[in-house]
From TrEMBL:
Residue ranges occupied by any Beta-galactosidase galactose-binding domain in the UniProt entry: 597-674
Domain of life: Bacteria
E.C. code: 3.2.1.23
Keywords: Glycosidase, Hydrolase, Signal
InterPro entries in UniProt: BetaGal_gal-bd, Galactose-bd-like_sf, GH, Gly_Hdrlase_35_cat, Glyco_hydro_35_CS, Glycoside_Hdrlase_35
Protein name: Beta-galactosidase
């Protein structure tokens, strides 16, 4: 039996068994990788100098159906934490259950929408009742893992980033936060509670951002008894379909960490350290299937230049940890307008951080010696010797990510047509009819991305016209008289504002002959939102499909609507066991670029060991499965969206105009000797362009080592 550890804190640090402990942590989300990957992720994390792993808990995945709990396979949180402990790593568990995390519904199960009178994350009894039920169940499940019971979990978090919505809910929101605090205390976990950006009373308030040193003074004023803990140090940023890939340089990440520790920070968690993959339909609205996050360990779990550059920094911080933690926060010594020195010294050791916060190089004197400081950098000087320069990446640490096609991997390609609503046998219709369109989630309950909307469209002589969907989300594919006619323009907006605003209206220019036409709209959801601010309403109001009306030019379509939730191929499990029940056609040249096609590609397991991806360049949009397991949504729409202005000079855009995501992770654990890759292609593509690729990292000097680990 493990010996329980006493975890507490003082104004400088987290205390474990009375000893101040420097926390160097990395976020690894257990559902975004597979159990076979976990040991290597833990080993590499330890090797890079982490002493802690942080993860959210994904209520939306553990309880997909109300009252039915799943902790198997990649949801095996208990095993994940046990592995961390085996590798000598503490665990920070962020329970939420609202977690944001770019996951579907911010971590809340979609069935919560159907609880009567519910409103999320405010003083609402139905929500609080369900939240408390889950949290108490979860804490009982993980209790043996708590440090107070001899386990690795040293800190826990309830709620998350409440400051983002505090103004919306006012006094009722603060009342809810007090309830969260009381709930946390009543759980008797025996470890400190933390909460980032808008903490409840009784929790350590922690920081999020690209840099945390500017927040230290205010934190010390607000919480003089609490240590400075940075629970989300963003080493990159997430990607959304239709926008460029985001990168942040290793040098800038190292600068942010060293600058924070210099000024008195004693706990850092990289969000993300390993981002991984949003398997299935688990990504939030617009979030790519890859959650690589430009993190120090890439999506496949391999090291990058960033992890190697940071590992050298971590080694020095651990070497001087006792010195750093024994001292009070040092006062900065000015060396110039934006240059500072922070010195930690004892009778036997000294460590000085020389910080240049300016965007240009500067020089300073350290004693009698003149030292050049690169722009936006920190030099660590230990006992008179320069130990580390955040702005200099060792050439031997530079890694280049490559994708090597596996020759002649795909051995067979076949297809099956997904029928239009009018082509389905009557016995398989399951249609809902109504005088007005019905919102999609009330029909699909988020068990499918897809819902058909069909009605009659009458024209009177117009050759050209505009079909407008007023009150619609997310992607619409328009079919007229059984023929594909148009699709939603991209890029879509992540933050769309009010449901009455322009972001929820889509228009399509069509050429139609006079007369009556059969209009069918395939509505495609691209994940549920992660927070209120994405729709300017409580999350429970989230909507998909068509809930308003359709208009041809200025005329509202008044005819009866037929709604058909889901795809026939989904209901028949064509991606799995059901594939044997239909006749698959051999591909010919006439079959490519046809919409509404199920494709099956057979391939043998490659002889080599390593990480593998499928290159879907040449396809357009849909869902992909490997041997019956959904690897995620794919969408090859070009990255034409503009980067966020608030991230300027920190996050850089890469692969502009190319697809946001071209390569899709195939977990080794899911591969068999003979494999089937199944795609449901919504718009039409050429499967001959699909390739199986091995992911490799090559060591070597590059012209731009700051952009090391990108495709």
């Amino acid at each position: 039996m493990e010996i329980p550890a006493a975890v507490s804190y003082d104004a400088r640090a987290i205390l474990i068994n009375g000893e101040r402990t420097l926390i160097v942590s990395g976020a690894i989300h257990y559902p975004r990788s597979t159990p076979a990957m976990w040991p290597e992720l833990m080993r590499q994390s330890k090797e890079a100098g982490l002493n802690t792993i942080e993860t959210y808990v994904f209520w939306n995945l553990h309880e997909r159906e109300q009252g039915v709990f799943d902790f198997s396979d990649r949801l095996n949180l208990f095993y994940f934490c046990e592995l961390a402990e085996q590798y000598g790593l503490h665990v920070i568990l962020r329970i939420g259950p609202y977690i944001c995390a770019e996951t579907n519904y911010g971590g809340l199960p979609s069935w919560l929408r159907e609880v009567p009178s519910i409103a999320f994350r405010t003083y609402n009894q139905p929500f609080m009742r369900e939240m408390e039920r889950w949290v108490r169940f979860l804490v009982d499940y993980i209790r043996p893992l708590l440090a107070s019971h001899g386990g690795p979990i040293i800190l826990a978090q309830l709620e998350n980033e409440y400051e983002n919505i505090a103004r919306r809910y006012g006094a009722e929101g603060q009342r809810y936060l007090r309830w969260v605090s009381e709930l946390g205390q009543s759980l008797n976990m025996g470890i400190p509670l933390v909460m980032c950006v808008g903490a409840a009373e009784g929790a350590i308030e922690t920081m999020n951002g690209f840099y945390a040193h500017p927040m230290l003074e205010q934190h010390a004023l607000n919480h003089p008894d609490q240590p400075a803990i940075w629970t989300e140090d963003w080493p990159g940023w997430y990607d959304t379909f239709g926008y460029p890939h985001h990168i942040r340089t290793p040098q800038d990440v190292a600068y942010g960490v060293a600058r924070f520790i210099a000024a008195g920070g004693t706990g850092v968690n990289y969000y993300m350290w390993h981002g991984g993959t949003n398997f299935g339909r688990e990504a939030m609205y617009l979030q790519t299937t890859s959650y690589d996050f430009n993190a120090p360990l890439n999506e496949s779990g391999q090291p990058t230049t960033k992890s190697r550059h940071l590992a050298d920094l971590h080694q020095i911080l651990h070497r001087y940890a006792r010195l750093l933690l024994e001292q009070e926060r040092p006062q900065p010594q000015p060396l110039g307008e934006q240059q500072w020195a922070y010195t930690y010294a004892s009778e036997t050791q000294a460590l000085t951080f020389l910080c240049n916060d300016a965007p240009l190089p500067a020089s300073c004197l350290l004693g009698e010696e003149k030292i050049e400081l690169p722009a936006h950098s920190v030099l660590l000087v230990g006992d008179g010797t320069i130990l580390y320069n955040t702005a200099e990446v060792d050439a031997a640490h530079t890694l280049q990510l490559t994708y090597q096609p596996v020759e002649q991997a795909i051995t067979r390609t076949t297809w099956y047509a997904e029928p239009l609503p009018t082509q389905r046998p009557d016995a398989l219709q399951y249609a809902v009819t109504a005088p007005r369109p019905v919102e999609q989630l009330s029909l699909t309950h988020d068990r499918s991305d897809y819902c058909w909307y069909s009605t009659t469209l009458s024209t009177s002589g117009e050759a050209e016209g505009t079909l407008s969907l007023i009150g619609f989300a997310d992607v619409a594919h328009i079919f007229v008289d059984g023929q594909f006619a148009a699709t939603s323009p991209t890029p879509l907006l992540e933050g769309r504002g009010s449901f009455e605003g322009p972001a929820f209206t889509q228009s399509f220019n069509l050429s139609l002959a006079a007369g009556q036409h059969e209009l069918s709209i395939l509505s495609c959801a691209v994940g549920l939102i992660k927070g209120d601010w994405m729709i300017d309403a409580n999350m429970v109001e989230e909507r998909k499909g068509l809930w308003g009306h359709a208009r041809w030019n200025s005329t509202v379509l008044e005819g009866e609507w037929s709604m058909l939730p889901g795809l026939l191929g989904e209901q028949g499990a064509l991606f799995g066991a059901g594939s044997a029940l239909v006749t698959w056609q051999q591909k010919s040249s006439e079959d490519i670029n046809q919409p509404l096609r199920w494709w099956q590609l057979a391939f043998r397991r490659p002889q080599s060991e390593g990480a593998f991806v499928v290159d879907l360049n040449g396809m357009q949009k849909g869902l992909a499965w490997l041997n019956g397991r959904c690897i995620g949504r794919y969408w090859l729409t070009p990255a034409t969206g503009e980067p966020e202005s608030w991230q300027k000079n920190i996050i850089f855009a890469q692969n502009t105009d190319a697809p946001t995501q071209r390569y899709y992770h195939l977990p080794q654990e899911w591969l068999q000797e003979e494999n089937i890759l199944t795609l449901f292609e919504e718009l039409g593509g050429d499967p001959d362009t699909i390739a199986l690729c091995q992911v490799e990292t090559i060591t070597g000097t590059q012209a731009h080592p700051s952009q090391d680990d990108q495709e």
